[in-house]
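I'll show a sample.
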Amino acid sequence: MSNDPTPVNDSPFRADPGDRDLAPQFVLPLVVRVERAAPPARTDALETAARAVLVILGDARSTGDGAWAQAMRDWQDARIRKVVRRARGAEWRRAEALDGITVTGKAAEVRVFPPVPLDGWPKELACLQVSGTELDDPEPPVAADPAAPVLWMNPGLGMSAGKAMAQAGHGAQLAWWELPDEERTAWRDAGFPLAVRTPDPERWKRLTTSGLPVVRDAGFTEIAPGSCTVVADHPALR
């Protein structure tokens, strides 16, 4: 897939079956470091996962003749699947030894890897837990900077931390696709600043009808197909 915005009727996040389902299916693996004594805060983990997706999308190895470019194209030509697993201790060290990129937030660490076939995970990642990752915010997040990109999460959906991290990644990717080249470059050069926040129900209603990119989940896990999970609010898209 090129870097051009994806047509709405060809969105990889649509719940309805389409041509993308006929292509070989790939998944973007993300691993969050969750040590028993010092797990990351939930919002920090969500923001770091979203930035990790943007970092690999903007990496030179992901485009042109780069080492990851074919895998990235294969992944983006099918359904856009992301799976977040957790690791600690020796598991994390083994994950770090694999080809990928580690992105650090305030305290969170997320490693993103080039896409792999849906049933072809490296053994070092296949053994990691995919469910039951629960993270909390010790204190409510501060208000988001209105001049910065914000990924707004649906206040009416209960999602595990791993599921929410994947959804935040989807929202970041939709924003990336929608942006003009110069805005992408500026965002990347600034280190992909962003916030993940949950609006009140009234604001959520306005956001979903604002014309901003909306993630509609395909319903593979946890939530119903077609559910609106994230609105990607980048200043250049308003």
Summary: Residues 1-10 have pLDDT under 50 and may be disordered.
